[in-house]
Amino acid sequence: MEHEDRVRQRLRLLAGGPFASWLDAAVIRARPDEVELQLPYRDELGGEQGGALLHRGVIAAFAELAGALIDAPAAGCAQRSLTLDYLGDAPAGSALYA
Questions:
Q1: What is the pLDDT of residue 23?
Q2: How many CA atoms lie within 13 Å of 65's alpha carbon, on the beta-carbon side?
């Protein structure tokens, strides 16, 4: 099984949970040390400034999901951690990529 197929299979398993399923992210491409996901914009992902910006919790969850799909040993990682520094806002109507 190709690595990208394994990542898609893992995403399906993770998406079995209610929140990951609700996010509905798609695998664009995957390598053992890198994964690219897309989260298409939906109105229900908004929440800040009257829905004009994506909710930062959605952004953090999407980043966490992408990190969970990386093959940590292949990427040279012994463990994973997540720290987010928001450099700007994600405007409503834009798809996210991680």
A1: 83
A2: 31
